[in-house]
Amino acid sequence: MAQRKSGETTNQTKTTTTSKSPRKKQFKNDTPVLCRSVTHGGLTYLGVNGMRYDWGGYGDIREIPYQDVVSLRSRKSAFLYEPWLIIEDKDVMEKPEFARDFKDMYELYAEFETAEDFFDCSIDEMKEKLRKAPNGFKQLILGSATDLIRDGALDSIGMINAIDEVMGTDLKMLI
Question: How high is the pLDDT of residue 5?
Fold first, then answer.
């Protein structure tokens, strides 16, 4: 073991590394936020500022001000909690309060590009997803199933019975 003589000093260099975390996007009340309709048919929302926002049907995307998104969340509005709208802005969805409230729910919608894609599931898968689904998703599937039955595009008795069983409806009367 080496010993140091009295009065001898050692030079040690300290390296300090600072990691800069990516800067979070700052939102102002009027910052536009993309929101996608996940309803069967049209949807209208009257914003905090009195502005009217309309979506024509499933998949339509409109911008609404951040203050309206915050207001909808704080009021636990059906627009976001059923949901009828999905927030498409990743920066908003990275905020802990939004991720906590909506991340799991949005995963179900991400599985299907269109509502009609739901009917590609097996009957067992369909039942499982409907049992766990939020009300807005159930209503979307019910509306789509009704249209498909009337158009003759959904004629699987098994699928219709599965929807009726889980949702307590009587769609088979439309056949």
Answer: 46
